[in-house]
Amino acid sequence: MTTGLRDGPKSDKVDLMFAIRYSAVVVLIIAGILGFFVYTTNTPQSRFAFKLGLDLEGGTHLVYNADTSKLAPADIQDSLNALQTVIERRVNAFGVGEPVVQTEQGGALGQGAYRLIVELPGITDVNKAIALIGQTPTLEFKLVNKGFENNLTNATGTPNPLAFTDTGLSGKYLTGASLQFGGGGNAIQTTPVVQVTFNGEGAKLFGDITTQNVGSQLAIFLDGNLISAPVIQTSITDGKAIISGSFTAASAKELATNLNLGALPVPIQLESTQTIGATLGAEATHAGLMAGIIGFLAVAVFMLLWYRLPGLVSVVSLGIYVAIMLALFKLVPVVLTAAGIAGFILSVGLAVDANILISERIKEELAAGKKAEPAIREGFARAWLAIRDSNIAHIIAAVILFWFSTSLIKGFALVFGLGVVVSMLSAITISRTFLLALGVNAESGVGRFFMRSGLRK
C-alpha cells in the first residue's frame, strides 16, 4: 500500500546535497565580490589602495642619534618609548602614509648609542622628510640658583650653565598646550602666553617643585634656549603652568601647536639619510608580482595534470584564497613590503600543501574500496590532523617572529601568519564544499574524470 510518504534517508540526502551546493554557490558569489572589490579599488585615489612599504613605494630613511646622557639608566627606555610615540604623532599629523618609527641601541652587543629610525614611504625629498620631523621643541624646567638671578645669560646671550639646576620636569610629562591671553597677576590680559598641562606624574613633580621653591625663579627652556624665568609665587598643584615671554599671538599659537605635536623627551640629531627612488620600488613591486603569478600558474598546472578534478578544485580554492588575502591587505590594512610579498607567496605554497595532503588521503580511501563521496569525507577528516598540526607550528613561528623581530621581519611574519590562517579555511572548508557539491559518482561524466585522475586504483 502506498502511503504517500517519501523515502526518508533519500530525502535527507537530497536536502544535504542542496545545502552543500547552495553553500558552494554562496562561496563563489562572495569570492566574486571580493575579486571585484580588489580590482576596482586598485587605484592610487582609492582609500582602499594597497599600502606599500618603503622598499616598494620608495621614500626616505632617516637615522637620528638620541642623546640619553642626561637620563638615569632606569628612565632611558621609557623616554625612548615616549620619543617614538611623539615622532609618530608628529609625522602622522602631516599625512604621511604608514610611517615606520622605531628606536634601537647600536653596537654589536647592544651597548652603543641609542638611535631613532624613521622611514617615510612616498617621501623622496630628503629636505621635506627632515622638515616633517622638524625641530620638535624640547621643553625643560630648571630652577635658578641663588645669587644668579641677575646673571642668567653670559656675554653672548646664551644661558649661563652655572645658573640653573635641573628639576627633572620636561616635555615628556606634557599632555597638552594652548594659547591663552594674560598670565595672571598683573599681566595685561591681551598678552599672549602658552598654558601647558602635565600628566599625573608631571603634575605631582611640578607641585613639589613649586611648593618647595616659593620665591625662587623657575626657568623655562625651549630647545636649550631660555625663553622665560618667572618667579614662583605660590604652590601649583593642578598640573598647569604658564609659559610667558616675548610672544606674539602667532608665535604663541605656533609654540602651542608644536608642543601638542610633541615636545621631545630626548634630544635628537640627524646622523644619516637614505633615499629609495620610486623607480627602484616599482621594479621590486613588478618582480614580486611576476614571481607570484608565475608561481601560481606553475602550481595550477601541476595540480591539474597530477590530480585532475581534485586539482581543479584546489586551483579554484587557491584563487579564492588569493582574493581573500588581497581583500584583507586592503581592509586591515597591511603595509606590503618585499618581505611581506615573500610571506604571501610562501603561504600560497602552504595552501597547496594542504590540498595535496587531502588529495593523497582521498586516493588512499578510494584504493581501499570506498565510493567517491565517503572517500572525500574520510580523506578530509584524516588529512585535517596533519594540516592542523603543521599550520599551528607555522602560526607559532610567525607570532615569535612578529613579537621579537625588527620592522622588516614583522611585515613578513604578519602576512605569513595571516596567510596560514586563511589557507586552512580555503583548504578544509572551500575545497571540501566544492568536491562534495560536484556529486561525484562512478557513473557520471564527472565521476569518470575523477576515477581517471589516478586517485582510484
Rg, alpha carbons:
33 Å
Q: In the CATH hierarchy, what is the architecture of the largest domain at level 2?
A: Up-down Bundle
Order of helices and strands: HEHEHEEHEEEEHEEEHEHHEHHHH
What is the tally of beta strands? 13
Q: In summary, what is this structure?
A:
By secondary structure, this protein is of the alpha+beta class. Helices cover 54% and strands 17% of the residues.
Describe this structure in words.
The structure is a single chain. This protein has 457 residues and is of the alpha+beta class. It has 2 domains: 8-52 and 277-455, Up-down Bundle (Multidrug efflux transporter AcrB transmembrane fold); 60-276, 2-Layer Sandwich (Gyrase A, domain 2). It is built from 12 helices and 13 strands. The protein has helices spanning 8-40, 54-57, 76-92, 126-133, 200-212, 249-262, 278-307, 309-331, 338-367, 372-404, 407-437, 445-455; strands at residues 51-52, 59-66, 100-105, 114-121, 139-144, 164-170, 174-181, 192-198, 218-222, 225-228, 240-243, 268-276, 335-336. Strands 3-4-2-12 form a 4-stranded antiparallel beta sheet. Strands 6-5-9-10 form a 4-stranded antiparallel beta sheet, with helices on one face. Strand 3 and strand 4 form a beta hairpin.
Layout of secondary structure:
Layout: H1 8-40, E1 51-52, H2 54-57, E2 59-66, H3 76-92, E3 100-105, E4 114-121, H4 126-133, E5 139-144, E6 164-170, E7 174-181, E8 192-198, H5 200-212, E9 218-222, E10 225-228, E11 240-243, H6 249-262, E12 268-276, H7 278-307, H8 309-331, E13 335-336, H9 338-367, H10 372-404, H11 407-437, H12 445-455
Parallel strand pairs: 1-13
Antiparallel strand pairs: 2-4, 2-12, 3-4, 5-6, 5-9, 7-8, 8-11, 9-10
Helix pairs in contact: 1-8, 1-11, 7-8, 7-9, 8-9, 8-11, 9-10, 9-11, 10-11
